[in-house]
Amino acid sequence: MARAALMDFDEALERFEPVIGLEVHVELNTKTKMFSSAPNPAHAEFHGAEPNTLVAPVDLGLPGSLPVVNGTAVRYSISLGLALGCSIAESSRFARKNYFYPDLAKNYQISQYDEPIAYEGSVEVELENGRVFQVAIERAHMEEDAGKLTHVGGATGRIQGAEYSLVDYNRAGVPLVEIVTKPIVGAGADAPALARAYVATIRDIVLALGVSEARMERGNLRCDANVSLRPRGQEQFGTRTETKNVNSMRSIERAVRYEIQRQAAILADGGTITQETRHWHEDTGTTSPGRPKSDADDYRYFPEPDLLPVVPDPALIEELRAALPEPPAARRRRLKGEWGFTDLDFQGVVNAGLLAEVAATVAAGATPAAARKWWTGELTRIANARGEDPAALAEPAQVAELAALVDEGVLTDRLARQVLEGVIAGEGSPREIVDARGLAVVSDDGALVAAIDQALAAQPDVLAKIRDGKVQAAGAVIGAVMKAMQGKADAARVRELVLERASGGEG
Ligand code: ADP
Ligand code: MG
Fold first, then answer.
1. Distance from the CA of 411 to the CA of which of 58, 143, 436, 503 falls in 20 to 30 A?
2. Can you list the alpha helix ranges (DSSP code H) found in 365-444?
């Protein structure tokens, strides 16, 4: 595939104004599916189930089977709508969106079309540079997820070039809420960062509500990013592309930035943008064409005849409103105060989309400073190298345990990083890994003293220098001891002991 020409980002921004629109799909973690009693694989209890084991007749569209709306999914959707500042429809309806696709056995998806359950909301999103945006929400509607296809045999995992495809209907019928923003204008060069920060904010809201596990790498939270450019000064929006299912927060920012640069090069060259979906390629950091898309997609939507309208009791809505967690902006202000972080440190956490992880790690017993350090330091470094989100690598409780082991003096930072590697590799909890890999710090002074005496005896010139008052010479001995202990010693303690032994009665 020919590589697309790209315009320099700053130049693109001088000539064009980006407009973005974000569609976020949230898989709800109800126990059962949207319209059937089959277990929901997005619920913790049913993770990792064998393919095609979490399926009811409704999920396969078997003749005679009829859908029933999941009441919990409706309540979760209302809570989410309220948390997004939306109005809740007195009456909303399901609709059939008709299309053939092998992962949707009914040949239609039950979704909501012109009568979504929630509409007209607003979310406050703050960027690392301090800019605050009110992102207008157009609607949040309920729908069911489709199954999952696995294309086997090709080089890319896509259908092109595959030998055969497998279909797993476990995901068919998983309850989804799709949250759609209005077109976002005015972000300028901040558009890519805003896209990322918006998704991070949605994730925080969803996690605070407890309505989804919101793991992007597992597809619990998926984002389609619409991007268009218009020449500066032009009123009318340009033609948009929709980059599908970008599965990490970092990739959302990269994908929006890439589309701005790609579209700018085409427009500057006198070309036109094709309205289409595009695929994001994590490895190359590029997008490629998906399918053409018209505004009036011919899905032949019509009201779902097998379901009654959803007419929530106003008392229920007020009950759910009263039970809403703190709004994200207020929560951020509170946590910032409680943790005592600087603006820069706190925004770093928020913008990395790690607020939920740091908060959960603190709740599991770590100090805020240690929680921040592990998530924004080592875990982010490893995640970036792997092209994943840090949240995909470790659980907050594991990070808290790691921090506790450092606090207790069982691990040095260096050893803790090795333990973390084990955690990421799925070897167990930090304590289990310390035991299994024998990684604990040697805190037994006897063993250290023996190694120190040996090192001093091997380097008599260094010993003489230390005795002469040239304490910086001790570094060579400390290094030798750390090496002998395979790094499993506390360097500060070794230094103390080296100086003690060197000046002590040794000869
Ligand atoms: P579709 O059915 O194509 O997915 P949706 O209405 O679900 O359409 O979502 C379209 C998204 O694109 C919305 O977030 C909308 O605000 C945004 N959008 C619409 N027009 C433009 C445009 N010209 N440029 C950028 N974003 C746009
Ligand atoms: Mg859409």
1. 503
2. 368-374, 380-386, 396-407, 413-424, 430-437
* pLDDT for the residue numbered 506: 45
Cα Rg of the chain, angstroms: 28
Selection from 95, 180, 199, 107 nearest residue 146 by Cα: 107
**Whole-number Å distance between alpha carbons of 456 and 479:** 11
Cβ-based neighbour number of residue 443 at 10 Å: 14
Any ligand 1 atom below 6 A from CB of 20: yes
Give the residue, by CA position, lying nearest to ligand 1 atom 5. 180
Q: Residue whose CA is closest, atom 6 of ligand 1?
A: 180
Angle at 72 between CA 69 and CA 78, to 5 degrees: 95
Centroid of ligand 1 to alpha carbon of 468 (angstroms): 75
Distance, CA 439 to ligand 2 centroid (Å)?
50
pLDDT tens figures, 36-94: 999 999 999 999 899 999 999 999 999 999 999 999 999 999 999 999 999 999 999 99
Q: What is the pTM of this model?
A: 0.82
Tell me how far the alpha carbon of residue 249 lies from the centroid of ligand 2, in angstroms: 19
Q: Which of 17, 20, 23 to mutate to test the pocket of ligand 1 (most atoms within 8 A of CB)?
A: 23
Assess whether the C-beta atom of 290 lies below 6 angstroms from ligand 1.
no
- d(CA 361, CA 352) in angstroms, rounded, equals 15
Atom of ligand 1 at shortest range from CA of 178:
7
- CB 84 near ligand 1, within 6 Å: no
Closest CA to 28 of 219, 187, 240: 219
Distance (Å) from CA 388 to ligand 1 centroid: 26
Buried-exposed string 87-110: b where 16+ CB fall within 10 A, e elsewhere? ebbeebbbbbbeeeeeebbbebbb
Q: Are 212 and 64 in contact (CB under 8 A)?
A: no
Q: How many CB atoms lie within 10 A of CB 146?
A: 21
Enumerate domains of the chain plus CATH numbers: 9-317 (no CATH), 326-437 (no CATH), 445-503 (1.10.10)
Q: What is the pLDDT of residues 194-231, one digit of tens each?
A: 999 999 999 999 999 999 999 998 999 999 999 999 99
Cβ–Cβ < 8 Å for 317, 117? no
User: Is ligand 1 within 6 A of the CB of residue 183?
Assistant: yes
Residue pair 443/490 in contact (Cβ under 8 Å)? The answer is: yes
Tokens of 314: 């106003």
Instruction: Determine the Cα–Cα distance for residues 258 and 229; give it in Å rounded to an integer.
Output: 12
